[in-house]
Amino acid sequence: MLPTRTLLDSITTKARLGTDVLAPATDALAECEKAVLVCATGMLASDDADRMREAARADLDCHDVVGATLRLLLREGGGGTRLLAAQLEACAIACERSNELCRAHAGRHEHCRLCTQATTRAIDACHGVREALRP
Amino acid sequence: MLPTRTLLDSITTKARLGTDVLAPATDALAECEKAVLVCATGMLASDDADRMREAARADLDCHDVVGATLRLLLREGGGGTRLLAAQLEACAIACERSNELCRAHAGRHEHCRLCTQATTRAIDACHGVREALRP
Amino acid sequence: MLPTRTLLDSITTKARLGTDVLAPATDALAECEKAVLVCATGMLASDDADRMREAARADLDCHDVVGATLRLLLREGGGGTRLLAAQLEACAIACERSNELCRAHAGRHEHCRLCTQATTRAIDACHGVREALRP
Amino acid sequence: MLPTRTLLDSITTKARLGTDVLAPATDALAECEKAVLVCATGMLASDDADRMREAARADLDCHDVVGATLRLLLREGGGGTRLLAAQLEACAIACERSNELCRAHAGRHEHCRLCTQATTRAIDACHGVREALRP
After folding, report:
1. How many CB atoms lie within 10 A of CB B69?
2. CA–CA separation, A12 vs D38, rounded Å?
3. Cα–Cα dist B25/B125, whole Å
4. I want to staple B92 with a disulfide (CB 3.0 to 4.6 A). Which of B126, C68, D17, D132 is the partner?
5. What 3-state DSSP class applies to C77?
6. Mean pLDDT for the stretch of residues C37-58
7. Model confidence over A45-72: pLDDT tens digits?
8. CATH fold of B18-133, please?
9. Could you give the CA distance from residue A20 to residue A37 in angstroms, rounded to a whole number?
């Protein structure tokens, strides 16, 4: 696998955020984007799908919001500080929501346990990039 | 074409937001999602692409952010008030940025002029839904 | 709402496919992208969600495939005839699958009935554009 | 990082395709989805953007098509053999096109060189999964 850092180093020369900030953050968001989709699929296929509907919907919302945030960051986070800060804030909230709802099922479902790990890392990544955006 | 209202009325029974709020807002965002992508394509193909790079990138960012927001709304805006409010805020900022950058080219490029119309309506839609979310 | 035709006319000068082919096709795909997402949401929230899981998953697959196809078309269908033909083929299959699975629930669920209408139109649109691509 | 295999093993029990097929394929597509977006951003920001417009547009098309294919696979490749085979075919074509166009710029642009590596792996992944789908 290509390290994200190598990839971003091949283009980022004038970006506001350095590759040392962007690379781990995009990795965390990419992992999260994948984990919440797999987890939603697992929940909807499960025998007790019925009581995990809200969590599945939160995962699908989270997948979309994380995906959009990730694409902003991969375009070098060049899209204006204000937009990036607001989108990272929405992304952290989407991850917190999935995290909270999946945590309730983590004892019974391994995919929910893995999903809470991924959303936890994504929340940290969002806060880390927001911190780095501060002047 | 199926009116969005008819479509949303076929499912929304328990949603926080009524169809009269959701339907026009999703229409405005869907139009904007399309207009910014077409406009970015037009700018990148144009003879003076060089001076519209920032606007094209802003349009691509806007496309992604509007798309994620639209999908939250189409899932009935059920995903928690806090998430929806934050995503709508990011969406309004993304649209404002495209609007401002395309406005500078609207005299020379019809697609930029149409794009500023679409982003203006999307900004209003974001504010309208945020207003409706207030308790 | 901005007519898609006006939007596409503002950029398409050298496209292989004329606006009279692209505009109605993108409208049909945009409607379908929306209808399958709303329908999946409706099925997963329904009392008899359990027996509609396969249809809901088919709708989510369809949403993703239609969305990608739509974005190719909005970028003027400029991406090479071979790619466009293959993606339209996949798109038609995704729509046929949703159509078939939702049809089984159309008597009980209005959103499934509307969804089958939208996928029917999208299938026709895919075939229409493929036809127009032939030399 | 969570290995994709661990994630997919947490849900795939009845999938047509085993995790040993799905996990490396989704990793290759996820890498490609990222690489083509970064490469397009690099090309559009470059001094010689003008002669790479077609390659940039091919990368954006590729990003969308790979993304949709990836999401089908992450939903366990459960969406019907016919759909999956057709979408993998379109995906391979999209990757071949990016590969061919970026190869021409790989000597001057490191991001184009990395992109051709990623699309090459994605093409192999598409063919591998198609092979595994055969009865």
Report:
1. 32
2. 9
3. 5
4. B126
5. coil
6. 93
7. 898 888 999 999 999 999 999 999 999 9
8. Substrate Binding Domain Of Dnak; Chain:A; Domain 2 (1.20.1270)
9. 27
How does residue B135 score in pLDDT terms, banded at 50, 70 and 90? Answer: confident
What global pTM score does this model have? Answer: 0.97
Any idea what DSSP says for residue D14?
S
Cα dihedral sign, D118-D122-D123-D128: positive
- Mutating which of A63, A64, A82, A101 best tests the B interface, going by the most B Cβ atoms within 10 A? A64
End-to-end distance of chain B based on CA atoms, in angstroms?
34
Mean pLDDT of C62-89: 91
Residues in C touching A57 (Cβ below 8 Å): 41, 44
> Closest Cα partner for B86 from B126, B50, B34, B57?
B126
Q: ipTM, 2 decimals?
A: 0.95
C80: which DSSP letter? Answer: -
Report d(CA D87, CA D67) in Å as an integer. 11
Regarding predicted confidence, which is higher, D45 or B37?
Answer: B37
| Nearest-Cα residue of chain D relative to residue C88 | D90
Radius of gyration (C-alpha) of chain A in whole angstroms = 15
For chain A, the residue count is 135
